[in-house]
UniProtKB/TrEMBL annotation:
InterPro entries in UniProt: CHP03016_PEP-CTERM, Porin_dom_sf
Keyword Iron-sulfur: no
Name assigned to this protein: Uncharacterized protein
Compositionally biased tracts (Low complexity): 479-502
Annotated Polar residues bias: 209-225
Gene3D superfamilies assigned: Porin
Keyword annotations from UniProtKB, A to Z: Signal
Organism lineage: Bacteria, Pseudomonadati, Pseudomonadota, Betaproteobacteria, Burkholderiales
Source organism of this protein record: Roseateles depolymerans
First and last residue of the signal peptide: 1-35
Length: 531
């Protein structure tokens, strides 16, 4: 019936959702054709064809039922109780041989609301990354695509899941394509010429928020030169130019620079460097200024890395400091960064997937095999692959963003513990005319978050998991520019068969916002079948 489904109400969204399904089908067919081509050329040696050729295709279907006592996240006395049925077909594709290699995981969630007047709707989830070797050892193309649910405003309501009726959440789609050419200039230097294009697009948001909020188009061109490898003292040159366009405000930001660098390797464990050059930008008005900095990297063991980079800029200095340590059962990562951010993508924060991927990188060097291993373990433990401790916000102007993050994962034969905490500060660069943009309401936004998960394996086929999440945002503008949420979730996951998992869960969420505060309790059951 017209108007009952979001696809029919928003043709623009329908086109994007259809495009997602078409893209998944085309990638799957392309990978299959490539596998058949390799098999015809004598690349096979018996056994399972897809695994032998490096191609793995795993379709799946999920069905869940959720009862919530507050679908609309309303205050006490106005709660809207509802049953939510979710049908979630998905597919995972990995290919680690041939000229096209990569990983794709896509899921479409069809949400049907019972005992409620809310319309049914569709959500998409996509994580894809790939590399194509167009000309052997010379010309390559990197591509990344992402679809996720993100928070529109840091000061609006925050909810623990995308199935709830939260007008402050929207679907954001990002596509990045980066072709590049690598080569040698005789014995003098090596070079890389890289072009990058990115598009970010969001669905319709909440009341008063345009569907173009957070939409951007970005392009850049980068040329890098470096001296011959293996020298203790080496040199480098880098030049780039970038332009980003914000759809809602019509604002354009341009920047370019030319920087020279010197690096010194006094010992196999150390790398020291300095940089200097000129930079032009219009973040705070058209200006050309000097840029200089220093960097250091220390690798005392193959599992430990300490690195730091600092640069002086006229609009605000930048830095990037990382401490990373991996052990058999433990991985620890501490980061502190400050740089210009042109969007709201929170992918810089470590997720459960990234933590376990980092931990198993030494056990399984092959990225595609490690992807399957990590996803299988997360499913068995009942952990969300994409869980992060803060969801960011949509911005329509460039910001100077400082992020301090700590991430830890510890595993034992029966227990897995993951911890992610962050402290983020965003400051507007320039001005924006969009009154619904957080950065037009507060020039400085402070966000903090922490997520702690403990999973325990009761039996080889049964696991329990408890997850606590706390988020808080505040701004320096007038009025009550703050929002906070705490959520506690307990689940138990049982493997019913080699490819079948069942999960039972209980969730309680509390928002402490003065004007948008709410409490929500939900019980849910989910079954996933992989084929």
């Amino acid at each position: 019936m017209a108007g009952r489904h979001r696809l029919s109400r928003h043709p623009r969204n329908a086109r994007h959702q259809a495009a997602c399904l078409l893209a998944c089908g085309l990638i799957g067919m392309a990978a299959t054709v490539q596998a058949q081509t390799e098999a015809a050329s004598g690349d096979s040696s018996g056994g399972d064809g897809t695994k032998r050729l490096g191609l793995t295709v795993v379709p799946r279907i999920g069905l869940s039922e959720t009862w919530t006592d507050n679908l609309a996240l309303a205050p006490d006395g106005q709660r809207d109780r509802a049953l939510i049925t979710s049908v979630s077909p998905g597919i995972s594709i990995t290919n680690r041989t041939g000229w096209l290699r990569g990983v794709l995981d896509y899921q479409m969630d069809g949400l049907i609301y019972l005992k409620s007047d809310r319309s049914s709707r569709v959500q998409n989830q996509l994580q894809a990354r790939g590399n194509a070797e167009v000309v052997p050892s010379k010309v390559f193309v990197d591509a990344n695509a992402n679809i996720s649910q993100q928070t529109i405003s840091a000061f609006g309501q925050t909810s623990p899941g995308g199935e709830l009726d939260n007008p402050n959440r929207t679907e954001v789609r990002t596509l990045t394509v980066s072709p590049y050419w690598r080569g040698l200039l005789g014995t003098v230097a090596s070079f890389e010429l890289r072009a990058t294009g990115q598009m970010r697009d969001s669905s319709d948001g909440g009341t008063g928020v345009s569907s173009a909020s957070g939409d951007t188009k970005e392009g850049s061109l980068n040329l890098s030169l470096s001296g011959p490898q293996g020298r203790a003292l080496n040199w480098g040159l880098q030049a780039y130019t970038r332009r980003i366009h914000y759809e809602l405000t019509g604002l354009d930001n341009r920047s370019s620079s030319a920087v020279a660098s010197l690096s010194w390797v006094p010992d196999v464990d150390w790398v020291l460097g300095v940089t200097g050059g000129r930079e032009k930008s219009d973040y705070l008005g058209n200006e050309t200024s000097s840029v200089y900095g220093a960097n250091i990297k220390w690798t005392p063991t193959p599992r430990t890395t300490v690195s730091g980079d600092w640069q002086r800029h006229s609009y605000g200095n930048s830095h990037n400091a990382v401490l990373e340590h991996r052990m058999t059962q433990l991985v620890l990562r501490l980061t502190s960064t400050q740089a210009v951010s042109t969007g709201s993508d929170p992918s810089g924060q470590m997720t459960n997937y990234q933590l376990l991927d980092l931990q198993y990188s030494s056990l399984e060097p092959d990225a595609a095999k490690r992807d399957a291993l990590v996803r299988s373990m997360l499913a068995a433990l009942g952990l969300s692959p994409n869980a992060v401790s803060s969801t960011g916000f949509l911005a329509n102007t460039a910001t100077l963003q400082q992020r301090n993050e700590a991430a830890l994962a510890w595993t034992s034969p029966r227990m897995t513990l993951t911890l992610s905490a962050n402290d983020n500060k965003s400051r507007a660069l320039g001005t924006t005319t969009n009154a619904t943009d957080d950065l037009a309401l507060a020039s400085n936004i402070h966000q903090r978050g922490v997520t702690l998960s403990v999973a325990y394996r009761f039996t080889p086929l049964s696991t329990g998991n408890v997850t606590y999440t706390r988020q808080h945002s505040s701004g320096d503008g007038s009025g009550n520019l703050s929002s906070g949420m705490s959520s506690l979730t307990a689940t138990t996951t049982t493997r019913l068969g080699p490819r079948t998992d069942a999960t039972l869960g209980l969730r309680h969420t509390r928002s402490d916002d003065q004007s948008l505060g709410y409490r929500e309790t939900a019980v849910y059951a989910q079954m996933t079948q992989r084929f």
